[in-house]
Amino acid sequence: MILIAMGVSGAGKTRIGEMLAERLKCTFTDGDAFHSAANKEKMHNGIPLTDEDRWPWLRTIRAAIEEKQKAQEDAVFTCSSLKRSYRDVLRNGDKDVCFVYLKGSREVLQARLQTRTGHFFDPSLLQSQLDTLEEPGEDEAITVSIELTPEQIVEETLVQLRMR
């Protein structure tokens, strides 16, 4: 099984992804690690990424997913996965790829981004991400509120996974 923690910047994808991987006793890979230097520079400078910027990034994450699958390893990845078409690239028709949508209000997300340090993402891009976001339906993802504690988010995710 491959889990992908998704959502806009500030949703807690990395923290939740790491915690899920620990609970599931599998590897964790942050999708941000696959961004090109040019993409990181654009985001650092407050320039939103275009679809053309994202496609190579998404295909690289998909290749990493396929490596885990070939090795028959479970894994947790993070990726904003803002549009259904992006999720389609990452899923590529695989039934064992499951998205976990970390959903939060603009206010909570903005507050988190204002206190975050050491990340290349310019907080001014939050609105651009929210505008791009196509929230996944129940057919696409497990949805969990970021209003919960990280421990509660992980527990709720695992409960919903068992019910699928």
Explain this structure to me?
This protein has 164 residues and is of the alpha/beta class. The chain has a single domain (2-163), classed as P-loop containing nucleotide triphosphate hydrolases (Rossmann fold). Helices cover 48% and strands 15% of the residues. It is built from 7 helices and 5 strands; from the N terminus they run E-H-E-H-H-E-H-E-H-H-E-H. Strands 2-3-1-4-5 form a 5-stranded parallel beta sheet, with helices on both faces. Helix 1 packs across helix 7 (150-163) and helix 3 (51-70) runs parallel beside helix 4 (84-91). It starts with a strand and ends with a helix. The model has no long low-confidence stretch (mean pLDDT 90).
**Multimer state:** single chain
Q: How many H/I helices? A: 7
Beta-strand content estimate = 15-25%
- How would you describe the shape? globular
Tell me the CATH topology.
Rossmann fold
Arithmetic mean of pLDDT: 90
Main attributes?
alpha/beta; five-stranded parallel sheet; about 160 residues; single chain; Rossmann fold; 7 helices
